[in-house]
Amino acid sequence: MQSVAQKNIDGKLLAKEIEAKVGAAVDRLKTRGVTPRLVSLAVDEEDASFESYMRQRDKACARVGIESSVEKVPLAGGERELNRALARLSGDSTVHGILIKQPLPSGFNEQALLANLDPKKDVEGIHPYNLGLLALGRPRFVPCTALAVMEIIDRFGVEMDGRHIVVLGRSKVVGAPLATMLLQKRSGGNGTVTVCHSRTRDLPSYVRQAEILIAAIGQPEFVRGEWLREGSVVIDVGTHAIDAPDTKKGWKLVGDVHAASALPVVSRMTPVPGGVGPVTTSLLLQATARAASGSEE
Ligand SMILES: NC(=O)c1ccc[n+]([C@@H]2O[C@H](COP(=O)([O-])OP(=O)(O)OC[C@H]3O[C@@H](n4cnc5c(N)ncnc54)[C@H](OP(=O)(O)O)[C@@H]3O)[C@@H](O)[C@H]2O)c1
Question: What is the mean pLDDT of residues 124-139?
């Protein structure tokens, strides 16, 4: 019988491997006078989780030698000021990667905003041009979380060819691009893909059929072990802080899958934390370094 440790898919290990390669690429860029720079653009609103995410992102950038900063525009400036700031950053040759804080305040038009984003700096892969390239099977920048799942599949040798993969969630940044890649005729793809969402009837009946389950629904510990197929592989994208009075901090991170009931059933599973999250961050660094090397040409 496999132990929990044997079932664990170690995202931290993969993230370290990716960071090491990015660090070396950044060193090479610096010898040619280019320091990769990542800027996050945000409407200035109170948001503790964004601030914490920015601190983590800054630390990760510093580890590999990427410069990072946040640019905030006042909410009172509205869409106009945000559009202007994005256009300016897109035109600034010292900025190589741009992140836009999501969700935008209500009433802001995302598609109009994206018209001001240089697709060559779109390290999150959300620009329609980059999404189009992805759909054509010629990916350039791909949403980092979706790509993190593909990298995990590749690095940990999860056999995909012809297998039934069930993706829970169809968001623009996770479920939809992931389903596109899993379906494509290429290594790591060739899956038989089912995508479920909030209107799916009898979700557990689909989960039960999954040889590989990818959960990205934003619902803490929603998927129960008793729904899962024996021996399936589970990749849990969800990340939620929930109350945990018995811990020192008073809270803990959990995924979309209820790990305690899932672990006895599955053959392999990503933990939360330490699974998809660190790989996502490392791929953002990788995309920024790639953007910087492209802008140098
Ligand atoms: N680890 C990382 O680096 C990372 C990065 C990004 C996101 N995340 C996590 O990944 C999860 C998904 O993120 P997201 O941005 O894709 O979320 P999202 O935009 O809220 O999308 C959630 C998707 O799940 C579906 N859904 C919601 N409740 C459901 C239910 N009860 N049954 C079936 N489907 C349901 C929604 O269906 P509809 O389309 O019908 O509304 C939607 O397609 C979140 O937990 C988020 O925290 C992790």
Answer: 96
